[in-house]
Amino acid sequence: MEGFPILSLMLLVPLVGAVACLFAEARAARMIALIATLIDLALGIVLWLNFDVGGAQWQFVERAELFAGFSWALGIDGIALLLILLSVFLMPICIGASWKSITKRVGEYMAAFLLMEVLMIGVFAAQDLFLFYIFFESSLIPMYLIIGIWGGDNRIYASYKFFLYTLLGSVLMLIAMLWMVNVAGTTDIPTLMAYDFPVKAQTLLWLAFFASFAVKMPMWPVHTWLPDAHVQAPTAGSVILAGVLLKMGGYGFIRFSLPMLPEASSYFADFVWALSMIAVVVTSLIALVQSDMKKLIAYSSVAHMAIVTVGLFSFNVQGLEGSVMLMLAHGLVSGALFLCVGVIYDRLHTREIARYGGLAVNMPKYAVLFLFFTMASIGLPGTANFVGEFLSLAGIYQVSTWAALICGTGIILGAAYMLYLYRRVAFGEQKNADAAALPDLDAREWVMLGALAAATLWMGVYPESFMAPMRNDIATLEARLAQAAPESDSHFEMGEPVPMADHADAAHEAAEGGAH
Amino acid sequence: MDFKSSLGLIAPEIILSVSSLVLLLVAAWAGDKASRAISVIACFVLGACFFLVAPMVCAGVAGPDAVAFDGLFTADAFAGFAKLLIFAATGAALVIAPSFFDRTRSMKAEYPVLILLAALGMSLMVSATDLLTLYIGLELNSLASYVLAAFLRNDERSAEAGLKYFVLGALASGILLFGMSLTYGFTGSTDFTAVRAALTGDMSTGALFAVIFVLAGLAFKISAVPFHMWTPDVYEGSPTPVTAFFATAPKVAAVALLMRVSLDAFGMQADAWRQIVLFVALASIIVGALGAIGQANIKRLMAFSSINNVGFILIGLVTGTVDGASAMLVYLAIYIAMTAGSFIAIVMMKDENGAPVELIADIAGLSRSKPLLAACLAMMMFSLAGIPPLFGFWGKFVVFQAAVEADYVALAAVGIAASVIGAFYYLKIVKVMYFDEPADVVKGSSDWAHWALLAISALFISPLGYLLTGWLGGVADKAATTLFLVAA
User: Fold this and answer.
1) pTM score of the predicted model
2) ipTM score for this prediction
């Protein structure tokens, strides 16, 4: 694979597909989009198989000096690899989800999605600061159109809010990037990740990056665009929004804020924890009272992403690995949950929870899969979310017991709102005649949800497949952060070593000592 | 410097003046029947001038070799760069005009002649290194523009636009002339180099007034806040091809002139004018963005958009560095393509009778009746808003990069944050075209010349434009450096 520009090829395939879709009939456009995304999925798998675990940090590096001021530099490490895999895995599912539900302007719709895919892969693969920015920012245009053209009743408000909110966040980041490049004299991300910026300047730079990533993530209190965007977007739009776009924020933290500005990250760690703690509790409570299914899942996304941020800002291996795992898991599971909503929305055209009930009777297959994803969202052991949430919370526990405690309530509250949702939709009596008459999953829906369920199980049962590629990168990041890591609030008292004779008593005492 | 080489340096201007006079005679004898032929010839003349200037820009001509008539006129690479943009934009204004005027049979043979005269004036403006040349060029351009604004004689709005433009333009010329006379009074010369030398060190209050009045006069010409009031009315009232012309070529000329005046003539007093320019820049960005929000007419909206863009361009001037000047030139080049493209798209929007469509409400759902046209206009709008991967982003990028490098981080942050307000109204056009139910007003077809021009500008501002960044940046750097040679 040496020297073959596979990343550029992965960008080119959907781009060509997008142009072709623009000029194609509805049926042809669907096929083109499906084929293009499947080719990209295959390329993604090739990428994964050829990724040398434990090898060089940056692999598949490409570089071409095409532009003034920045270059076409691509390359991935383990973290980027996993996020690219997530993107290419979700894309064919998105196309599948739109197969029947999108009937107007199909060509343009598929083109917008393929363009999204180009930009998402570009964001994760860019090795040049400004190239990253261009990909990052460009994703606004197709998403704006997806929400605005194919969205629900209040789509225009939602599309504006999405666009302007995220734009305001990221323009400030551009100024910070310009400053950093001016000082460091390079646009190369790996070099910048090892560059020590003056500690004084880091604060403002960090805030500028934070403005962008916090909105994208989204963190409380700048999350309000998300429920609107999710509710109005078409199903596949929600999947891609929750599955990948939000991860751009997390990826930004892990790629920029933490390694480039470690001191400022440490300085603001308390602040991030505080916002995350509020987010977990507040948005979970908000989710509990939603009557709109998509809104409920949107708020649950905010809560889950808050656990990602505490994990990221725990400055240790568990926390960082956990947050990446949780990002991947959330990408799969929240995507799947939006699909589950989409499946019944396509049939009954309402997201009102009260309009459903007792679906387990007439849609048993659906009920099983929906239950599986509900459990995964709660963090049931054996599913992907458990691995991510457990590691994140274990990581944060090492530095802040309070943050761990409060974020831990998110799991309980998550169980509450998800189970409550499931009970109202799938169990209980079939009080609505039309909901009771809905047909079960067809083959297309079964394949899409089945694939997601398989991936979720794989990640939950054997997470090593996904942990291995990123292990070295996380270790590098932790080493980079070690100088700045905040002090833990737990002060362990080491017990005195005791002679073997008093073994039983000593063990007892040591246990008491350790609990302080 | 002998007379012959001086004449060689002003060859493009000679060609322009001779051909415009000859064409004027042709127009007088042959009448309006010949207007199409005259337009074609005028285009060729502009093309010839373009290719006469182009090698000079690429070579980066500068220094004493470029000075003609003892410092009255300088044909350096900077002037050349501006001239290339001016000739290209003027050519576009000629190409899109005939089919627009033909519908009302108001295409007159004067139109191409006036456009040529305006181009000549602008060409003089950007080459002026003496206050007198500056004024002659400015007035030549302005007088032609006043007539062009009122070109649709039977249209009240057009007549009003012409009158308004004339009255306010005359006022601005007066202010400028007053500033120039003060400058002459306090420095004893009208030559930029001599003015620069005389204004070294502490500056008297009188000389400060001179700087302020000159800048105020020029701010009017580039329609920067607080001298922007005329812009929406004139843009709305003028015939659309003329508006397209106003929004592009004279902007380039006036900005280039402003750059030369402030960086050369007043170059030693940068601290004196910097605050003014800084205020004008931010005010233009913000007023341009806020003013556009409530507009129902797309030409008025574009007027505010041009005010907004001028603000971004001026950020480059605030830095006062070579990078800043180069960034301004790059921005101008991209701005021309975006604005010309938008106006071409606007000219192409006609209802079933062929009457121009100007109301934003009337282009609702354009993406369904005319997908290609809507896509091009949407690209222009995203580009004007500065959203990557469209090329408009690059203009903002280089300007802000120059500002950050010159340590104006706060200015850059405020400016770019204000650009988000601007994004709102550009998005509105996209929203109306793509999200709203079709109004089915826009009908009719356009000729191939419109499509060709639109395709060129759309291609330029598409992501493919980034491939040009190296070349464009290089040429602009060369041009900007020549501007600073005087300082050395």
Assistant:
1) 0.90
2) 0.90
